[in-house]
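step: validate -> pass
step: tokenize input -> pass
step: predict -> running
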Amino acid sequence: MHKTSYILHNKQLESELEFSASRSGGPGGQNVNKVNTKVELRFNIAQSAFLTDTEKQKIEKYCKNKINSMGELIISSQTERSQLKNKEKAIERFQHLIAMALKPVKPRKATKPTLSSIEKRLSNKKILSEKKKFRGKIQ
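step: predict -> pass
step: emit ->
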């Protein structure tokens, strides 16, 4: 996915987001008790019109701990004192999660250990075995 198509993709996904606000927990005085600053972002992965089936599967696999039983990706933010800033933070986290989930997996290159690393490992093993040999009972 190219960067420009990714940005368009992201803007389309943002139109499918649902937000709800509630009172934030923790200390904070009157502001916390009166104002709904905590923002919860919900995104239904299965019903998304802009994602392909493979992209949906990748997102579900990557974000499995943040998805409820109805297939909604839930992100909440309550760090800021204003609802707008918390909404922006939630959107930012959503974009980051989607980007990480859809990032192509880099194939691993098989490598051999170097001769010096093998020798170093064996010498360390020899030193540890010598150390442990003297831990036995004294006769």
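step: describe -> DSSP finds five helices and three strands in the chain.
step: cleanup -> pass
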